[in-house]
Amino acid sequence: MFNRFKSSFMHLYPKIKLFTEIFLFIIIGIFGAGYMRYTFLTFKNEQAVDILRITRSVEATFPKENFRTLGAKSGDLDKPEYLAVKKNLEAVVRVNTTARYAYIYTERNGKLFFYASSEPAKSKNYVAPGQEFTDAKPDNKLSFEDGKERIIFSHSDARGNDIIALVPVKDELTGKPLAILGIAFNPESWNDFLLVHVIESGLLIVLLLSALFLLYQNNTKNKLLKIEIKEHRIAENEIRNLNETLEQRIADRTNQLETINRQLEFHIAEIEQFTFIASHDLQEPLLTITTFGRLLHDEYAGKLEDDGNQYLVYVLSSVARMRDLVKGLMDYSLLGKSCVMTMVDCKRVVGHALESLSDSVRESQAVITVGALPMVHGYELELGLLFRHLIANSIKFRRKLVRPEIEISAESLEKEWVFKLKDNGIGIEKKDMDKVFIIFKRLHNRNEFDGIGIGLSHCKKIVELHGGKIWIESSHGNGCTIFFTIPKRQISLKNR
Predict the structure, then answer these.
(1) How far is CA 107 from CA 56, 102, 130, 240, in A?
(2) Which of 52, 117, 141, 291 has fewest C-beta within 10 Å?
(3) DSSP label at 132?
(4) Tens digit of each residue's pLDDT (9 = 90 or more) over 71-123
């Protein structure tokens, strides 16, 4: 009976073996598919976190006050705030190789409108400020309503498939979104990264299947060891190739950045040289026009009719103004040239500035109070020019029948000095505070106040030459306070 059972078993053994192999492969296949899906979802979530992290870091660089000034309208095109936002978006695409384009938009009356985008003006995908976001998805508007971050996968538009991150730019006071920053990432690089991990998990399953199958077939350990060694060698070669590729990409990127920096330095030098040469060469023909204009005036002033005399006066006054503009431009281009930074006593520099303005101070009967000022590491000539311009502006833009009062002081912070010049003059309207630093930009008629509109441009360039920043706090008719900072590089804490 036992022999008959053994014979039957041996007869059925091939079928049992085949069934067992098929069963094992089905079980392992189900396990492998589940494991690969788990790997896919895990790394997809990690990608979303990385994309949002990049977008948050970009959002943090946007000054929130720019969006309070801009209205997402066509009139924003010439505003410095729009240009600042535009440059920020362009820098995002330039620095992040995985980013395809970036844009920022807001909501108005239930519709979405663009502030700006990274696309150049000549691009077919360019969007102008104030242009309506007509192909927006529900998530675009929903992020503005609930203020939540979102990732949109497999988004399709005229540019193709993208992975888009939406991050709200929130008001620091109210916490409500001022705008939504959107960055579209090229999905190929992210998908390649994801595919590598899915393939790795698949290889792990293949290795497991191979090991079980070989054990089930009673293959020797030597064969299994050879396969593992082969797989390890392949992995090592892949890692080595990836490292070499990565090192080459880093070297290429470094060379590109160095080339861009050299080109930028060259262009800046060219612009400065052009500005100096243009302003210098313009003085000779202006001098000639002035000389012959005066000769005409002296010789023919009594022989011309009233209109002729008036025209001649207009010519001479215009040439004089042009000469002042050219000189101002040349002085602006020479700021910071051929100078050496030294320890500068700001108290003494202010004293010299007041001496040079003694006639204006005496004529206006200005009361100037100078507090404790520090020693700083900087350019003495330029710092003197800075204080002279600021004090002269406070005297010039005084209120009628009101005695000018000017206070100059400094405050020590951890890494910088904050200088403050406060007056009781006519003040500046909020909408004009950024315009005053634009070269040759005037806010008043020349009949009201003289000058060519370059003084505060000089001040801004001098402060930035020292690595600081300058800003204004004022309201129209209530005086003006100008702040600027000088970093504490090699600074003595001695006060006067």
Answers:
(1) 20, 17, 11, 50
(2) 291
(3) B
(4) 888 888 888 888 888 888 888 888 777 788 888 988 888 889 988 888 888 88
